Amino acid sequence: MPSETPERPPNKWVLLRGDLLVLVLAAAGMLVNWLGPYELSSALMILFGAAILWILYRMYVKNQAYDRGE
User: Fold this and answer.
1) What domain count does the chain have?
2) Total Cβ atoms within 10 A of residue 26
3) In a domain? residue 26
4) Could you tell me if 52 and 23 are in contact, meaning their C-beta atoms sit under 8 angstroms apart?
5) Residue 64: what pLDDT?
6) pLDDT value of position 1
7) Which residues contact 26 (CB under 8 A, 6 or more apart)?
């Protein structure tokens, strides 16, 4: 069976649109948590912060791979 390579996205926005959506949702969740704190607020801020950092890292890696042509 020949393995087909997936098509390269036409631009970076197509490649990163899913990550951008999740980044916006995580930032919105962090903002809502910051504006209306409750008992688990500090733990959620850490989780939202870690999620945002992970998404930014994924976007960086995808961007580097796109620039190299992988």
Assistant:
1) 1
2) 20
3) yes
4) yes
5) 94
6) 57
7) 48, 51, 52, 55
pLDDT at 4: 72
Cα 33 from Cα 9, distance rounded (Å): 35
Query: Does 4 fall in a domain?
Result: no
Task: Show the domain range for 18.
Answer: 12-68
Q: Given this model, what pLDDT does residue 37 score?
A: 77
Residue 2 within a domain: no
pLDDT value for 7: 78
Question: Which segments of the chain have a pLDDT < 50?
Answer: none
Whether 26 contacts 48, CB under 8 Å: yes
Whether 52 contacts 26, CB under 8 Å: yes
Contacts of 61 (CB under 8 A, 6+ apart): none
Q: For residue 3, which phi and psi values (nearest 5 degrees)?
A: -90, 125
